[in-house]
Amino acid sequence: MSPWSPLHPLQLFLGLVIWSVWFVFLYGGLSLACEFAPPDEQRGALTWVNASMLMLGVLVGSFLFWSARRCWYAAPGADEAAATGRFVARIAAAVYLIAALASVGLVLPSVVLPPCI
Predict the structure, then answer these.
(1) What gap in Å lies between CA 38 and CA 22, rounded to an integer?
(2) Looking at residue 59, what is its pLDDT?
């Protein structure tokens, strides 16, 4: 079985790994942007930093939602002998969904707050 198969046990923690890399990238990039190219404070939340964070957050969240959907719909296709595969796919779908909601939740403050306070 391929490690990228929705029934592979790697899927159980891959969503949280993607979320944690996104978390580090988001706040590391925000810190670097505020240090080396801070946007004008008068603009409030309408800055290039917030726009890029929001766009990247939507991309990461969309990928994680797609992965959750892929795992969820792969579970019924597993044969009866592969009950473990069905279990893995359903749990992985839930983990991907939680990671997707958390990754989108990370960028929601960028809608209303200025990036470099």
Answers:
(1) 21
(2) 96
Residue 3: band (very low, low, confident or very high) from pLDDT cuts 50, 70, 90 = confident
- Residue that has been written with the tokens 């749990």 in this structure: 91
Query: Cα–Cα distance between 38 and 49 in angstroms, integer?
Result: 8
Q: Give 24-78 as a 3 state SS string.
A: HHHHHHHHHHHHHCCCCHHHCCCCHHHHHHHHHHHHHHHHHHHHHHHHHHHCCCC
Residue 9: its pLDDT value, please?
87
Q: Which amino acid is at 51?
A: A
Q: Phi first, then psi: what are they for 38, rounded to 5°?
A: -70, 135
Instruction: Please check the confidence at residue 61 and state whether its pLDDT lies above 90.
Output: yes
Q: Please give the backbone phi and psi of residue 4, each rounded to the nearest 5 degrees, phi first.
A: -90, 0
Q: Phi then psi for 81, rounded to 5 degrees?
A: -70, -20
Give 99's Cβ-side CA count (13 Å radius): 29
- The reported pTM is 0.89
